[in-house]
Amino acid sequence: MGHGSSAALAQSMLEPVAPLQQSANCWDRHALGANDLDSPDVVDRKVKDLLNKLTMKKFDSMSDEIIAWANKSKKEKDGQTLIQVIRLVFEKATDEAMQSEMYARLCRKMMEQISPKVQDHGIKNSEGKPIAGGQLFRKYLLNRCQEDFERAIKDQAAKAAAKKKGDGEEEIVLYSEEYAAQKARRQGLGLIKFISELFKLQMLMERIIHECVKKLL
């Protein structure tokens, strides 16, 4: 697949989602340091711990705690904590394809229960008001799907080019390179499965799931 066709494909597959931009008046959470109770480092550690404990048996209690962390974005104007929580959930879901259904259910619950006070002043609706709550969560999630899908397309194109260039030549594959390749394949399959589960829960359009599965297989 050529570079031009890859870019055109990625453009046609997902709903148009404007890239997230940092607003000029947002506050810098990273400057607060790891000792702040809501700092990115603390959020990262706490949410990862909750995701590691998440099972269907503990789903209600663990998911409530994860949503509570996402709702800390109520104090922000750019939704950075919510974006961080979505990233952690997405990474976990694509790395553990067997649990895709559970993580999709988590996303659905987050969309339904995220506080309407969570807003992004840099993203406005047709009335000029900041997008908030479940609508904002879904927009962030679509951004993440688009980013990962476009990355998968680029990785496929790069692998195809490298294979073509290496034909007829002796190949020496380092262990670290093979491990990275296996991880990429695992996450690619995880992405397909996760997107499929999101579609089942009516969080993604039918057009998206059909094109994603067809082109990523």
UniProtKB/TrEMBL annotation:
Pfam families the UniProt entry points to: MIF4G
Domain of life: Eukaryota
Keywords: Cytoplasm, Initiation factor, Phosphoprotein, Protein biosynthesis, RNA-binding
Record-linked Gene3D superfamilies: 1.25.40.180
Keyword Isomerase listed: no
Subcellular location: Cytoplasm
InterPro entries listed in its UniProt record: ARM-type_fold (IPR016024), MIF4G-like_typ-3 (IPR003890)
GO cellular component: cytoplasmic stress granule; eukaryotic translation initiation factor 4F complex
Stretches assigned to the MIF4G domain: 45-217
GO function terms (MF aspect): mRNA binding; translation initiation factor activity
Entry keyword annotation includes Cell cycle: no
Coiled-coil parts of chain: none
PANTHER family xref list: EUKARYOTIC TRANSLATION INITIATION FACTOR 4 GAMMA, EUKARYOTIC TRANSLATION INITIATION FACTOR 4 GAMMA 2
Family the UniProt entry places it in: Belongs to the eukaryotic initiation factor 4G family.
Protein name: Armadillo-type protein
Organism: Armillaria borealis
Source organism phylogeny: Eukaryota, Fungi, Dikarya, Basidiomycota, Agaricomycotina
